[in-house]
Amino acid sequence: MAARPAGEYSGGSRRKLALGIALVGGVDAVLLDEPSSGMDPGARRAMWSFIIEATGKRDGAFVGGAKSDGLAVVLTTHSMEECEALCTRVGIMHQGRLRCLGSSSHLKLRFGGGYLLEVHAADDDAAQARLAAYVARELGGEETEDRHFGRAKFRLPACGQSMARVFRAMEAAKADLGVQAYGLSMPTLEQVFLSVVGEILQG
Fold it and tell me: Can you tell me the distance from the alpha carbon of 160 to that of 203, in angstroms, rounded to the nearest whole number?
């Protein structure tokens, strides 16, 4: 491959080459524009691992500008997955302006509308009504959509809420409510982006 002209490389290979050239001088900071665009999933994850290694981090988070013993990287991307994999600080731009900046978890709590609780319980109206009443009373939750085969989803407010509190509340009433399984998640960065843009468009 080293003997081939760079112009004959695939798009993904050109991006790998560009990243290597950017880092070869031992720089302290580098700007990347869509670094993994056009790559297959395996190559994309290999590049992410390389970037994480280059920043001096080992835990899957990466520098947004402050790591004295590693490379500082600023990147632009349309891939929310790439943001989740690499960024400790995320900025959302819309119409050429920076609209918000913060950690992924902060933005999710600020703009994502709280936690999402999904519960699988007995598939009958009385049991589901008891479940909805309990979640509303104890956790301030609001059902988000129609139930399907005993599965219900609730949006929980982020303010004054913690995952530990939700787990305690669900475990305490699990048997009484006939809960078979439940899961708690935060909104995705894509949902955060849509929320931020929606607020802007609404004025």
Answer: 27
User: What whole-number distance in Å separates Cα of residue 117 and Cα of residue 17?
Assistant: 44
pTM assigned to the model: 0.66
CB 142 within 8 A of CB 171: no
Helix, strand or coil, per DSSP, at residue 8: helix
Instruction: Indicate the helix (H) or strand (E) that contains 47.
Output: helix 41-54
14-38 pLDDT, tens digit per residue, is 888 888 888 888 788 999 999 998 8
Residues 103 and 185 sit within 8 Å (Cβ to Cβ): no
**9 Cβ contact list (under 8 Å, min separation 6):** 1, 17
Q: What is the pLDDT of residue 203?
A: 66
Residue 113 falls in which region: left (phi positive, over 0), alpha (psi -120 to 50) or beta: left
Q: Choose among 199, 96, 114, 197: nearest CA to 153.
A: 114
Coarse DSSP helix, strand, coil percentages of the chain, rounded to the nearest 5 percent? 45, 20, 35
Domains along the chain with CATH numbers:
6-88 (3.40.50.300), 113-185 (3.30.70.260)
pLDDT tier, 69 (very low <50, low <70, confident <90, very high otherwise): low
Asked if 138 contacts 169 with a C-beta cutoff of 8 angstroms, the reply is yes
